[in-house]
Design brief:
By secondary structure, the chain is α/β, with parallel strands linked by helices. Helices cover 30% and strands 25% of the residues. It starts with a strand and ends in a 9-residue tail after the last strand. The relative contact order is 0.15. The structure holds shikimate-3-phosphate.
Length: 466
């Protein structure tokens, strides 16, 4: 079993690039596979979750060639679109740990004239699928969940679908995307109404691949009988992976970090707003969204953080960052409150319970609610032996906590980080051995000084007491 052994680190002065965005990588290969010809997908995230989607598409008859790869796996793919017509897979499609693969593929398979079985690992087999089964059944697909209580494995019998207008009971970008994919098959307009805005990568990619959609307030519509136009796409870096280093730098007094080529889509940058509210200094250098997704660089200056409340409409925008934001809360002055985040209970693990247990083991006082938690900022953490609970974001959030703790922190069972950020362990070592270097600092600053910050996010005067 792999583990991370972490020691307290000195403030960093560094620059980092993060691997491709997970959500966008899944969607890009799916839409390319549905398209009418060859599409090069560059910047693809070679993580276990995204490779599950690639393997699933290959099992459905899609030819996917590897154009470039690193030691971690393929980063540039040539996907040969099949004009929306896939082949019956010979065997069950194993989605591993990837909820995104399973839910998105349900939408795609709902319109195919064959039956396919979708399976997952122990964690995925416990995750709710009724949220995707219900709307797709309403559109005419037959989906049977053969696990307990509507859980996987799923047997999807696709066929002719009907257009629909579906109001999501739970804010979920995965369910929204599944419905939009299913909406590509029937004649007419299919609309999804979401209670709160969630990540909009599917909509942006559909636009980019010239599929007619519209977006008004919380209604997203797609017109059916459309085939995406084949084209090339570049996936920007994943802000959810960058989040671990952004919080590290923000909470270290005197630290300075530049994150390059990272996705800066407004439906994903809630973490920056939260950290600025907590007192972090962050500048955002946004490039033109040439290919549908804004991206750019971030410059973070560390300092003392103060507590904040994260709740309501902000939650979907920071849903994957809540474990690391809870760690930021533990390092701040005051009590940080997270509410309206019940969804955390049905992620790769129950993230409310996992975060509370691990923070308490590090000496932090934590109150647990059904929909969130209350973290009494300790400023200091003590090293501990912690479980990842088989959840990549718990493993990485607590590795970062270990960088601030007195004594050694050990995170057990860290293989799970392969699902989203295979290079995390290497970067962690780099951060642990980092020293403030005058030279590095000068180079890092001057590289960005030549660019114009399109948005400079700094805390309001007097927000943070020294
Ligand atoms: C994702 C959406 C979110 C997020 C998950 C990835 C996506 O889940 O937590 O890691 O790619 O659409 P929900 O849509 O279930 O909230």
């Amino acid at each position: 079993m792999a583990e991370f052994k972490v020691k307290k680190a000195r403030p960093i002065a560094s620059e980092i690039s993060v691997p491709g965005d997970k959500s966008i990588s899944h969607r890009a290969v799916i839409i390319a596979a549905l398209s009418n010809g060859p599409c090069e997908i560059d910047g693809f995230l070679p993580s276990e979750d995204c490779l599950r989607t690639v393997d699933a598409l290959r099992a459905l008859g899609v030819q996917i060639d590897v154009l470039e790869e690193t030691e971690l796996g393929p980063t540039k793919l040539l996907v040969h679109g099949r004009k929306g017509r896939f082949k019956t897979p010979g065997q069950p499609i194993d989605c591993g740990n990837s909820g995104t693969s399973m839910r998105l593929l349900c939408g795609v398979l709902a319109g195919q004239a064959f039956e396919a079985e979708l399976t997952g690992d122990a964690s995925l087999s416990k995750r709710p699928m009724d949220r995707v089964i219900q709307p797709l059944t309403h559109m005419g697909a037959r989906i049977e969940a053969r696990g307990d209580n509507g859980r996987p494995p799923l047997f999807v019998s696709g066929g002719p679908l009907l257009r629909a207008h579906y109001t999501l009971p739970v804010a979920s970008a995965q369910v929204k995307s599944a419905i939009l994919f299913a909406g590509m098959y029937p004649k007419g307009k299919t609309t999804v109404t979401e209670p709160v805005t969630t990540r909009d990568h599917t909509e942006r990619l559909l636009d980019y691949f010239l599929v007619k959609t519209s977006h008004h307030d919380h209604d997203i519509s797609i017109w059916g009988r459309q085939t995406p136009e084949s084209r090339d796409f570049t996936v920007p870096g994943d802000i959810s992976s960058a989040a671990f280093w952004i919080v590290t730098a923000a909470a270290q007094r005197g630290a300075q970090l530049i994150v390059k080529n990272v996705g800066l889509n407004k439906t994903r940058t809630g973490i920056l707003d939260v950290l600025v509210r907590m007192g972090a200094h962050i500048s955002e250098f946004v490039e033109e969204p040439v290919r549908g997704e804004p991206y750019g660089s971030l410059e973070i200056h560390g300092g003392p953080l103060s507590a904040t409340t994260i709740e309501g409409e902000e939650i979907p925008n920071v849903i994957d960052e809540l474990p690391i934001l809870a760690v930021a809360g533990a390092l701040s002055r005051g009590t940080t409150v997270i509410r309206d985040a019940k969804e955390l209970r049905v992620k790769e693990t129950d993230r409310i319970a996992a975060v509370a247990t691990n923070l308490r083991a590090m000496g932090v006082e934590v109150g647990e609610f059904e929909d969130g938690m209350e973290i009494v900022g300790a400023g200091r953490l003590k090293g501990a032996i912690l479980s990842s609970y088989g959840d990549h974001r718990i493993a990485m959030a607590f590795a970062v906590a270990g960088l601030f703790a007195e004594g050694e922190t050990v995170i057990k069972d860290t293989e799970c980080v392969e699902t989203s950020y295979p290079k995390f362990g290497d970067e962690l070592k780099r951060f642990m051995s980092n020293k403030i270097s005058g030279d590095l600092q000068t180079t890092v600053i001057s590289s960005l000084a030549q660019q114009k910050a399109l948005s400079r996010r700094v805390p309001a005067e007097n927000d943070v007491e020294e």
